[in-house]
Amino acid sequence: MQPHRLFGCVLVLGSLLLAASADSSPIIGVLTQEVFSNGLISQHFENKTSYIAASYVKYLESAGARVVPIWIGRNRSYYEDLMHKINGVLLPGGATWFNQTNGYADAGEHLLQLALQLNDNGTFMPVWGTCLGMELLAYKLANGTDHRINCRGTGMALPMELKEDYKQSRLFNASNEAVVALMVKENVTYHWHQFCYTEADFARNLLNKSWRVVSVNSDLDGIEFISAMEHTKYPFYGVQFHPEKPLFEFVKPSIPHSPAAVLSGQYFADFFVNEARKSPQSFANATEEARVLIYNYKPEYTSILGSTYVQQYLFTDKEMQLEEIGFEGGDDGDDGPSYFPPGHVYGDGNGAAAFLSLGTGPLLASLALRLFSIDF
Ligand SMILES: *[C@@H]1O[C@H](CO)[C@@H](O)[C@H](O)[C@H]1NC(C)=O
Ligand SMILES: *[C@@H]1O[C@H](CO)[C@@H](O)[C@H](O)[C@H]1NC(C)=O
Ligand SMILES: *[C@@H]1O[C@H](CO)[C@@H](O)[C@H](O)[C@H]1NC(C)=O
Ligand SMILES: *[C@@H]1O[C@H](CO)[C@@H](O)[C@H](O)[C@H]1NC(C)=O
Ligand SMILES: *[C@@H]1O[C@H](CO)[C@@H](O)[C@H](O)[C@H]1NC(C)=O
Ligand SMILES: *[C@@H]1O[C@H](CO)[C@@H](O)[C@H](O)[C@H]1NC(C)=O
Ligand SMILES: *[C@@H]1O[C@H](CO)[C@@H](O)[C@H](O)[C@H]1NC(C)=O
Ligand SMILES: *[C@@H]1O[C@H](CO)[C@@H](O)[C@H](O)[C@H]1NC(C)=O
Ligand SMILES: *[C@@H]1O[C@H](CO)[C@@H](O)[C@H](O)[C@H]1NC(C)=O
């Protein structure tokens, strides 16, 4: 081998290693969601006003990411601060309307506005929407026009029906042929939704200019809907199905757990976490990071109480109002950062400036829902 070629190899390898070590463990924000005042969680747990299904956390962790919960019901400065520190956002599925004040959809709007701005400003900020999260992505980027139609898509395990030009999508341009062959042959994706988007509607309203449809599927009545999409300009991705469920949810017998279904779910986790690795942002220091990570909370075993989620993280209004950082105590001599046990009050609480200035926002206590959308 000629010397200059060897040098070239070393250079390329060196820069790959640098890139990988700089941000190889991205931190992804997962949006919380309001619980129903008369629902299962409220019946069993006092004062819990929001949740994250633990499967979304495990899903991201399985691909090498760490997770920070993003609270609902906060003001702009909270979301703005956090969005300058995390490396990606996951909007999970669930059961809520888009018209509730201070809930999932309002928080989602802040996050998406900020993600658009960050990307426009040259800072890579990927967003992933699963099921209701995909619906929220499309809805907010259509400036609040709801293009969803009713669908009968509950409890379906289906193969991917990739569009002919799927190889041109970012989601699949680097995909392994063997994995794709399994995805299109076996029932790898799990659907549980009562709404969906159609290609015809996207074309009619020119949403097809901003979204590339990557795959479609048909509901129980044969209505074809968009099952995976990516934004043509921004690193935004949406799937109507649940890649996390074959790996981490076991309550419904209809959820596929075959090797192919697990591989397929993992494919999407790996893809998105790799996107987040491209984000250059970080927290100010290890303490600030440790203080907000999901490890501060313990998931509850909720399927045993009747939930379709095996485990859920549940949060009270109080937990969603982070204490101030303040004095950081005698860990300065330690090798690593100080990690606090769950429930520990960080700092002495007397510090002046709160780093995440959190509103006390009246959180949904009086929320009384007659109907709700179930796009788990
Ligand atoms: C729930 O909130 C009420 C009112 O603040 C409080 O008295 C009660 O102790 C809380 N319960 C739990 C389990 O935290
Ligand atoms: C929110 O939307 C749902 C479904 O369209 C509707 O039933 C409900 O009345 C709406 N709630 C408010 C507060 O507008
Ligand atoms: C993007 O840049 C504009 C103009 O400099 C600035 O006002 C805005 O705050 C930036 N947005 C974010 C999310 O950093
Ligand atoms: C939404 O509004 C923005 C800003 O006005 C505009 O650039 C964009 O084209 C609109 N999108 C749709 C789908 O109407
Ligand atoms: C896939 O697309 C991304 C983003 O456009 C690009 O950076 C990458 O090089 C492409 N990969 C392949 C294998 O074409
Ligand atoms: C996928 O599911 C359908 C409907 O349940 C079933 O008919 C089909 O045999 C399944 N395909 C595979 C490859 O398991
Ligand atoms: C979007 O749909 C319209 C109407 O069918 C069509 O004219 C246009 O070419 C489509 N655009 C893209 C990017 O597919
Ligand atoms: C960590 O960052 C926070 C927020 O910027 C700051 O208040 C704190 O003093 C920093 N701690 C250390 C040890 O640098
Ligand atoms: C956000 O809420 C905090 C805490 O209540 C408050 O100090 C801050 O002024 C609020 N920011 C805005 C922009 O309203």
UniProtKB/TrEMBL annotation:
Residue stretches in coiled coil: none
Signal peptide stretch: 1-22
Enzyme Commission (EC) number: 3.4.19.9
GO process annotations (BP): tetrahydrofolylpolyglutamate metabolic process
Matching PROSITE patterns: GATASE_TYPE_1, PEPTIDASE_C26_GGH
Domain of life: Eukaryota
GO CC annotation, single: vacuole
Active site annotation, chain numbering: 131, 242
Catalytic activity from the UniProt record: (6S)-5,6,7,8-tetrahydrofolyl-(gamma-L-Glu)(n) + (n-1) H2O = (6S)-5,6,7,8-tetrahydrofolate + (n-1) L-glutamate
GO MF annotation list: gamma-glutamyl-peptidase activity
Keyword presence, Signal: yes
UniProt keyword terms in alphabetical order: Hydrolase, Secreted, Signal
Enzyme class: hydrolase
Keyword Manganese: no
Subcellular localization, as worded in the UniProt entry: Secreted, Extracellular space
PANTHER family, per database record: FOLATE GAMMA-GLUTAMYL HYDROLASE, PROTEASE FAMILY C26 GAMMA-GLUTAMYL HYDROLASE
Membership in a protein family: Belongs to the peptidase C26 family.
Protein name, entry field: folate gamma-glutamyl hydrolase
Organism: Drosophila guanche (Fruit fly)
Species classification: Eukaryota, Metazoa, Ecdysozoa, Arthropoda, Hexapoda
